[in-house]
Amino acid sequence: ERQRTLSTELDKSSNGYTPADNVVKREQPGVGVARQFCPFCSNSVAFLSRHLTRVHRKEPDVAKVLKLQPPGLKESKCTPEMSKLRCLGNFMHNVEVLRGSLAGDIVVVRRSCEDRPASDYLPCMYCYAFMLPSRLSDHGEACELRDRGERNDYGAHQALSKYLLTSA
Question: Residues annotated as region Disordered (predicted)?
Answer without folding.
Answer: 1-21
